Amino acid sequence: MGKSLLLSTALERAADEGRTVLSVGGASWNSGTRAKGFGSLAECLESVEPSTLDGAAAERPVVGIDDAHLVDAASGHRLHRLVAAGRLSVLATSRKDAITPAGIDKLWVDRLIDHVEVAPFDRAALGDVLRARLGGHTDTSTLERLWAATHGNALMLRELIEHSLEDESLRCLNGTWVWQGLTERPGKRLSDVIRLGLRDLSHDENELVNMLAVAEPLEVDIAAASGLAHAAESLDLRGIVTVERTGARVDLRLSVPLSRVVVASRMSDLTAQRLRRQVADALERTGARRVEDVLRIVSLRMEAGIVPERHQLLAATRTAIQRRDFALAERLCLLALRDTPSQSDSAPYRPVPDSVEYGTDLCRVVTRAARSSEPSNCIRAALLLGQVLIGKGSHQEAEAVLATALECGVEVPHAEYIAAVHTRVINLAWRLRRVPDAGAVLAHAIKAVGSEQAGVLHGSRAMIAVMSNRLQDAVAIGDTVLGAETAGLPVAQALVPVVAFARTELGDPAGALELLNSYRDVSYDWDTDALVLVDAVAARCAYLAGNLQEAADTLDAPRRYDSTDRWPVLVQSIIARSRLLRLLGQPERAVVLLRQAIAFETGHEWPATRAWPLAQLAGALAESGMHSEALRTLVEARLVQREAVSHPIAEDEIAHDRALVLAHTGDLTGAVAQAVELAEGAAASGRTVTAVIALHLAARLKESAACRFRNQARVLAAQSTGGLVRVMADHIQALAEADGNALTKVSKQFRDMGALPLAAEAAAQAARAYRASGQRRKGREAWAACQDMLRACGGALPPWMVSESRGESDIAPLTPREREVAALAATGLSNRDIANQLVVSVRTVENHLHRIYHKLGITARNNLKQGLDQATTQSDGMSRTASMQLIRSAEPESPAPEKKDTDRRTPRQSSLRFVDRPAS
């Protein structure tokens, strides 16, 4: 964990404070004459003169001991006596798996020292460390990749960052640090540091580590069958391997993911081949019980030089696509497309992925495969390859491959043909924005197979209607097709999630939930993507109906959530869960989930877009109080939104979170304008739910908005079957009338639903309304209820509750664009870089900065971050002031309490900080 560096830093600070520092065991730094170094603790204690052992605590010598578990027993006991007598202060480190001498153990048993275990960084702490090291904003996907590579291990993180900076795989692009992963084998230093954690392994332990490096996760049963059960136990105790339990199955992984790369790179090719074959054979003997076992068997044998049969390659490809492992799926498809799977790599027209001629070469291969000895299986592989290319983001190449395969005249199973047409149509309409071409392909396919046999193509029609903001058309398609007796399971799988999604957006969550429930018994046979969308829509229906607990239960029982990362969780499910967490008052948990989601490639996951989870993350960060990071993430979302495709529903979700971030960062006017614009557009499209939610946000921010839109909100809510939307409309009405009783009723309704942040806010508004009308007792009761709910959810009132106080401030708030410019400039970007990101002129950026300096009261660019933080702190302080004003107005006058002369004893400070670390 980098214990030596931690100790050296602590000793350096002690020396800076004027303390006498004695270093044992190599804990040193560029100290000059400020510290003395010793090879052993005995030598160190002998050198200490008796006269220096007396005096105040601040004058005691500080002894720094690296690897305290190596101290001899006699020196340990002597150290204990000196510390117990108050004559020494000690800083020490030890390995977690090592046995420390009795004298050292006795120190913390007698409470003479603090025993501190240095745990790995969590994701939030990792982001803070990177900002401190790099001095700028780090791309959200990069944060997740670094976490996946190190699991927060401080030593591994430091070495990986330094290595990546050296080989320039970690670089700053437009003011944002980006890392795509290790571009080549780790360098010598990084490899040597990782190997230090794997030293002193027995033969069996080394064999198991090698096996994990080429075939993790490894079932404990396979390790036991190979005679490595005791090795697994000892490596687990040392922290080198991690034990994961999934149901009745127990797997092993290397604790530090980077270890896998390093160990595999140092392994003999013959050893790697032997171990891969051994694990693949063991998996096959167990019956390949899990779906992914077939993929693992095929992958291991390919790496071992054994070419699987074509039908095995096709089965493995489908699983790889489900796991979003598109690089592996592409390799499997290309292997299956060869005339014979064992064909040499020097075959003509062998496509080179990501090359300029890749699409053309693929079409040649598909054309030739149609004339091979197994044309049907080869074309099936080509159709899967088209799906893989879409997942990789190679949409033009995917269209070329799908068009060639579908038009070559080779017969494939009907279901696979229909699925391929569906894939091609969605790629044309959504990714390539060729909606007319998509419609022509769809019409031709339906005409060719007949309407009764079109199957999932009806789902394609409905999906295109939703993308085009024609929700009523999507519902009509569903009613017509699902009402026919010929609608079978594949048709329902394609149509039901899309039609339910459209019904929900049109304000009929009850009808959508009824549709979903009518297919609940048969939906367990649907594929994973359809099931995840069903869960997400069902959860949205439940919380719009006011049943937040039911929504949580729906998302807690999905068909594919895997904490071991064996199966990726689809982004749409994470978006639904994070939305619910924020409504429940847990934005910090939403931040963690969304950061994971953003690391996934979401280009193929309808209806999610790349910018959608980024905007959600910005909103969750703002609600968590991390306003500067929220602004930077919002800018990142806008950049992605300009470059990536989208659809109106996703655009509106992004706009809502943009308004929320503006509100939390002080721009209430801009936030209201954004929310009102969103509401008008959504209402014009018939999406009443989105319109009411946007008006509700505007009304909470400004009383004038509540007065202006209360009638419109009531009319829109009357068209919806959702209980939450109707309560929001009642909230708007109560705010417009400043009716304390009505606000109290709304607060209770939100509380009964589980939406405690909204309930607390309504209660605080009720307290303010009661105060204005002179009903002080009711005001106190409402405020007490507000505080109870805030304590229950661990939150605080939002900053716009102090809009009146803010309006009286002499300092004008920053506009949305000024906040964006300030956030980007604070990360170190030049004016030209900022101009390029925001698509404005350099002169415009200079003008913005001139106004920003004036509003924040600063004169230099390097003060921007501090100025922004102070503005945020001021906003938070005003929120607390308003809360205190509400308290004072709600509580009766009371005499000031008499001063009491209390004698508080300062607790004795520990004389030793004992830093513990895992073995790895």
What is shown here, in short?
The protein is mainly alpha-helical and about 900 residues long. It contains 44 helices and twelve strands. The strands form three sheets. Strands 2-1-3-4-12-5 form a six-stranded parallel beta sheet. Strands 6-8-7 form a three-stranded mixed beta sheet. Strands 9-11-10 form a three-stranded antiparallel beta sheet.
Question: How would you state the average pLDDT, rounded?
Answer: 82
Radius of gyration: 32 Å
Number of strands: 12
Residues in helix, %:
55-70%
- Gap between N and C termini, in Å? 7 Å
Task: Describe the largest sheet.
Answer: 6 strands, parallel
Q: Count of helices?
A: 44
Q: What is the strand arrangement across the widest sheet? A: 2-1-3-4-12-5
Shape: globular
pLDDT < 50 runs, ≥5 residues = 341-348, 559-567, 803-811, 877-920
Strand content: 5-15%
Oligomer: single chain
* Helix-strand makeup class: mainly alpha
Key descriptive features of the protein:
920 residues; mainly alpha; six-stranded parallel beta sheet; 44 helices; globular
